[in-house]
Fold these 4 entries.
Entry 1:
Amino acid sequence: NRVMRWNKQNVINLVSKSNHLPAPLNPPAPEIYRLPHPPPQLPKISIPPTLTLTPSPRHSNFVNFLENNLPHHQTLSPQSLIGFLRSKLRHHPLFAHYDFAVFNWAATLDTFRHDHESFLWMSRSLAATHRFDDLYRLLSFVAANPCPCSSGIFSCPHLEPIFRSAVDAYCRAGKMDYALLVFDTMKRLIDGKPNVGFYNTVMNGYVKSGDMDKALRFYKRMGKERAKPDVCTFNILINGYCRSSKFDMALDLFREMKKKGCEPNVVSFNTLIRGFLGKGKIEEGVKMAYEMVELGCRFSEATCEILVDGLCREGRVDDASGLVIDLSRKKVLPAGFDCGGLVEKLCGENKADRGMEMVEELWKNGQTPCLIACTTLVEGLRKSGSREKASGFMEKMMNEGMLPDSVTFNLLLRDLCDSGRSIDANRLRILASRKGFEPDETTYYVLVSGFTKEGRRKEGEVLVNEMLDNDMLPDIFTYNRLMDGLSRAAAGNFPKKQVRLL
């Protein structure tokens, strides 16, 4: 008989102690490792009443699950425990939230000892699922139970990632008291100074929670602790000043950044530009963009989108297109910038000609606009009555290998036919077919109707026969009707206004 690796009554007690997870182990800790007191108040977990001593089906299922999947306790190692938690328990629909209970149970075994890998796994799991109280208990346990790889007076070199994931989770949740408490605890446990990224995480948490004063105090603390700020440190504080509309302070910090030998990056500029434009300070934002160019800092797609969106929100679409043209001429416009939104705004304000000027400038400078921008421009030119320009631009698109959608293409052909240019419309169809465009029934009906209006029987009959060859005619009566219309129109037997699309 196989000896059960789990005592059933112990498991029942394990899963019954709280609504979600049993209280973790709390062994006495050496004084040097204890967390600061008093710690933040943890909410009390009510213990549901036990109405019966008979194991419930869920408890029995949990026992069976552990018996069938968890390695024997005498051979259990941190790696095999992590494997069980990751592959067996993590995605289980009923038992996933008992991972911390299993983690705590393993710590009670005489033959088992957690290491930094199991600590890190559990820390990230609790942080990802927002179990902040249990995360705090875990870190208390880590502080009281050094990793096996720590030797003598030296701490485990992997402690910092364990605490950093927790600090990041607390900051994201706005629990800054916990974040600072965990940071201070980690700082005492590790050898040397924390990585500057650790300081940045806490500082960014203060900024996002709207507490700029505490963020600045933490920044000053960095200096006292001889932690050298990096570009991310300054970007976080600049963002905080911009969020609180203190642009003068943001610029002062920007200059201080340079004096301290920390070169601003694209995020630094984007943060300032977004802040200026968000508060309607258009000139300051654009000036900052040109300073960015002068310093040789690479423009990003985000930079261009911030500038264009900010100008358009103020109703300055002409200035936005002018800025894009200028940046393109200076060869600093990112290749991935999508001008489709700006083209749409220009066409919406009946400024399709300006949109065409911008798009052609991009093309001229070796930056191919996207298909959506081009089809939007064709539609804008068509609606503004610039059929000649729309046709020419469509031809250029197709010569560049950009095929339009059938709706845009057919509408342009209809406009050309309505203006007596059916020959030009058919020439566009032939070009499109050569480039891979597949005309549909509407394409042919539009052209046949145009040829009928112009009395061009020969050209129309060629298209009708193509329709017949391509199975685009529903029956022979439709074929005869189209041919008859072309014949009568060529003979002038009925007014052109009677000709209509079939």
Entry 2:
Amino acid sequence: MAELDGFPLTNLLIYAVVAVAPTLVFWIALSAMAATRRRRRPAGEPVHRPIQELAADLRRVHRLLLDFGPGTPAARRKGTRQAYDALLIQACAAVEVEHELAVLPEGVDREVERLRVEEALRGAGLAIP
């Protein structure tokens, strides 16, 4: 048996197998499942949510933004504004309208871009306030 300064090398190999094998097995299994799932995905699956749902969600979240009173926590306002921006981005992708909402930081520039995007979506036929 091979020794490494009084420490059996076989013990080190057994430890390496016990420590690495489960991780390797689960990684291979997850990779196989992901590959199977990619192959099973139907080709005609829609890329975007239905535009009617997006418009309804935009109207609902916009109404929430308008209904916030003076005592509403800042975190709720910011979260709702971010949700509204995410819906605007989805709607822009669905009707192929250019936007910069994803890259602009919070502030006046983003507010102006939000107004421009809302108007462009209205021009594209989306019924939003």
Entry 3:
Amino acid sequence: MSRWEVKIAGFGGQGIILAGYLLGKAAAVYDRRHATMVQSYGPEARGSACASQVIIADEPIYYPYVTEPDVLIAMSQEAYTRFAAEVKPGGLLLIERDLVALDTDVARPDGDGVRLHAISATKIAEELGHRIVANIVMLGFLCALAPIVSSSGMKEALRSSLPKSAIELNLLAFEAGYERGLQVGYNLAGNPSQRREGL
């Protein structure tokens, strides 16, 4: 696929905006593709709803808003409830297993060919030492499941964007999510060999 529309949603304090920034930076700076990001917040900061909208394409992007996401990452119940029905048929829906209860009235994960995968990103992050890297676990999970950006590009984006003291933990979080994604064994392009795995 030459164009991806990705929405990452959750609540303040989960690193939703940072996740969108890193995804876009990996694509634009290290994979040499076009990328845009739009962010939104609730009326409060920490604890309120927030979302990142990222578009990645081989051609110039003239409208930066996600209208029908190929991928939705829902890291809270509100994010799932508000946005799950927007995922296009054949798209990918990733949820934080421990924070999202599925509601078939909101979305039919396989009814429209939407592929749903759950991961306990927060639990994995806590096992690594800090729940704040749950967003990076989720990015690793995404990179293993869909050829949106290369894993090498994402790692470089992490290294160049974070304080030195945080890089090692975030790389471990990315690898943990990536390994979980490989275990799922599903690739949106339909062929595992087509993943943009990088280094």
Entry 4:
Amino acid sequence: MSVAHILQSKGSDVISVSPSAAILEVAEVLADHKIGAVLVMGDGDKLAGIISERDIVRALAQKGSQLASSKVSDFMTRELITCAPEATIDQIMSLMTQGRVRHLPVLDKGKLCGMISIGDIVKRRIAEVEFEAEEMKRYISG
């Protein structure tokens, strides 16, 4: 199973913010969409970074009540770990584990084509295990 297959079923829409967006605005976007991270798009829709719930918690710990005046660019992750559509679930799990990240932008020849999360991976793995269990039951029962 590849990232491309997961994107086909979940969709490739990506929610993003600008580097100049307020941190509190990003928190609202995350809450409204029930997601854990958004991509940060710079000039010309160029991928500039990612900001996650964890980044916002770190920002709160550093800034406290001054967080309201902080911008995304102050706390976003600029060094991105990305993947390609042809990457396998096992490769993605390894990337996420090694990089200690939960969200990966998906780039096809350098162009953003989606984002995949650990939740997407877990959902797909559960579906695979359930399918395999059903197949085994059918095989055993003849």
